[in-house]
Design a protein that fits this description.
- The chain has 261 residues and is α+β, with helices and mostly antiparallel strands.
- It contains eight helices and eight strands, in the order αααβααβββαααββββ.
- It has two domains: 97 residues, no CATH class; 108 residues, no CATH class.
- A four-stranded antiparallel β-sheet has the order 5-6-7-8, with no helix packed on it. A two-stranded antiparallel sheet has the order 1-2.
- Helix 2 crosses helix 3 and helix 6 packs across helix 7.
- The chain is globular, with a radius of gyration of 20 Å.
Length: 261
Amino acid sequence: MAGYHVFPGGTLDPEDTNVKTWTPYIDLSIDQVQQQLGDENFSNEEALGFGVAAIRETLEECGVLLATGKSRSSQDYERMAFQRLEKGLPKAWFQDRIITENWSLSFSHLYRWSHWITPEQMKTRYDTRFFITRMPPGQACTPDERETHHGLWLTPQSALEQNLDETIALSPPTLTTLTQLTKFETFAALFEKLPDQCWGEALTPHVLTTSDGPVILEPWDPLYGSDAAMNIQSPSKKVLAAGKWFSRIWRDGNIWKPIST
């Protein structure tokens, strides 16, 4: 996704799933973790590991720590954001700092959103969980200038409009997620829904090669699973307005744009 605007994220590390290590340093019991972030196909260990990875990667890439601690000040958060930029940090640095400084990871502020698997046609594939949370007060996002080189705060609608204007470039999952979020007019409406949000079936898009460029079919597209390349013509005439729901995304140069069926 080089060159695209995406949400913070990264790889699940082996130490992220160690239940014995992490249980004392999260703000939920392991049973509550399963209730908050798991499901019948997502074990306690997996829910824990993905939650730890989400919080760790958000700190590493954005400088925001989703954690609390007794008598913590703004300087403590700023110090963690600064320390994550140190060169040569050991692989387990995050785990070591959380334990030695007795932080409590804010699992209670993480919610399930969606489960994506990279299309089969791609050389490198990922099995990814998207979480959603509030930006904690008193902190500021700062790119790490290694994995991320630019950061923006945008409303979903504004981001979608800027993508169509080719001011920024959104990745396909980001484009889909932001379009989903446009139906919520307020944070209150969104967060009222989140406790009941489930992972559901993994979303695995299908990529078609057309004479006008690649087209992604989402699993809810009527032609998903069929060789529909011949049925997709003149996508430049089918581009939808920002925020309109879609089931197909066309790559116009380097910009992914939603198109009608």
